[in-house]
Amino acid sequence: MCSQCVPNVFDDMTDFFMTKVFAGLSENFKEELKIISQQYPCKPFLFKKEGNLRLQFPEGIAMLRAKGITNEDGSPLEDTQDLSTAQV
Asked: Which of 5, 59, 80, 88 could pair with 55 as two cysteines, CB 3.0-4.6 Å apart?
């Protein structure tokens, strides 16, 4: 098995799994989502049925920077920064 094939298989499996999850939520839990949206207004799930967007981490950081997102102290986001929620 080639080393480039394994990541592609995992990408395909992840796309399939996530599409099934979101489609299942949208189709099988309409009433529950309607009730939840009364307390927490939100838009319906939007997802592509095929070919989900894949970003490398630095690309995602660049998109956040382009939208003006900074750290809590106002400093710019770093390419290798941990974006986890601060623990209190």
From this structure: 59
**Cα within 13 Å of Cα(10), Cβ side:** 6
How far apart are the C-alpha atoms of 74 and 25, rounded to whole Å?
Answer: 37
Give the C-alpha separation, 8 to 88, whole Å.
38
Per-residue pLDDT of the chain (88 residues; tens, 9 = 90+): 555 566 677 777 888 888 888 889 888 999 999 999 999 998 877 777 776 777 888 898 999 999 999 988 889 988 888 877 665 5
Length of the chain: 88
22 in Cβ contact with 47 (< 8 Å):
yes
